[in-house]
Amino acid sequence: DGASISSSTYYKGNAGTVNVETRNLSVSNAASISSEAGELSSGQTGNVKLLASDTLHVDHAQVSIRNLASVAKPQALTATSLQLQADSIQLDHAAITAASSGNVAASQIQIDFGRQMRLSPALITTSAVSGNGGNIRVSGNGVLFLQQSQISTSVSGKDNGNGGNIEIEAPVMVLDTGAIQANTAATKAFGGDVKIQVRDVLSSGNRITVGGAPVLFDPAHFQSNIIQAAAADGPGVGDGAAGRFRLARDP
C-alpha cells in the first residue's frame, strides 16, 4: 500500500537480488518492487523474483528493473531477469517493466501462471536505447486476457540495438484491444521474434492486425488488436530486418 522493496547500486558494486515468496501478494497504490543500477554505477542490476502460490495482484503499482548506466563493456555484465509466478495473476493499471536507458541490454521478463492471467489495463514491457531489448516469456495453463493492454519489447535508439523476443504459451489468449509487439527503431538492427503457441485466439471485433510497419498502440482505440515484429528498415531493406512471427495453434 504505497510501500517499496528495492535493491540498487549507484557506484562500483552490484545491486542485490530481490526475492518475495508468499501465498498471496498485493502490490497497490503506487507501491513498487524493483532493482536499479544508477547512471554512474557499474551497470549490474539485481534479479527480481515474486513467487505467490495462490494470487498475485498488482494494482496501480509497478514491478521493475531499471538500468541507467553506460559502461565500457556491456557484454561483460551478467544478464538479469524479472520473474513473476502465481496461480492467478491480476494486473490492474500496472506496469511490469525492464528498462535500459544506456548501452546495456534490458533485463528479461519471465511470467508463469496457473489458471489465469488478466491485464486490465496493464503494460508488460522491456525497453532499451542503445542496448538490445530484453526478451519476454509468458507461460500458463489457463486463459491469458489482455484488455486495453500491451506486451512489448522495444529499442528506441537509431544506431543499434536488436528488439527483444516475445514468447507466449497458453491454451487460450483473448485480445480485447490488446497488442503484442517486438520492434526496434535502429536502422541496422533486427526486430525481435514473436512466437505465440495457443489453442484458441479470441479478439474483440474479430480483428487482429498482424505484421506490417511499426504501429503505435493506443489502448483508447477500441478493438485495435496488434501482433507484430518490426524494424525500421523492414524485411530485406538495408542491414536491418523485421523479426519473425509465428502463431502455432495446438490441436
Please supply descriptive tags for the structure shown above.
single chain, 251 residues, mainly beta
Topology:
Elements lengths: L3 E6 L8 E11 L3 E6 L10 E12 L2 E6 L13 E12 L1 E7 L7 E12 L2 E7 L7 E5 L2 E13 L10 E19 L9 E10 L5 E2 L15 E6 L13 E5 L2
Parallel strand pairs: 1-3, 2-4, 3-5, 4-6, 5-7, 6-8, 7-9, 8-10, 8-11, 9-11, 10-12, 11-12, 12-13, 12-15, 13-16, 14-15
Compact overview of the structure:
The protein is mainly beta and 251 residues long. It contains no helices and 16 strands. It has a 16-stranded parallel beta sheet that branches.
Kindly describe this structure.
The chain has 251 residues and is mostly beta strands. It contains no helices and 16 strands. The protein has a 16-stranded parallel β-sheet that branches. The protein is globular.
- Provide the gyration radius in Å: 17 Å
Structural class by secondary-structure content? mainly beta
Q: Could you spell the SSE succession in H and E letters?
A: EEEEEEEEEEEEEEEE
Termini, distance in Å? 43 Å
Quick check: average pLDDT?
88
- Approximately how much beta-strand content do the residues carry? over 45%
- Label the overall shape: globular
Helix amount, in percent? under 10%
Number of strands: 16
Number of helices: 0
Largest β-sheet summary:
16 strands, parallel
The parts where pLDDT drops under 50 for at least 5 residues are 235-242
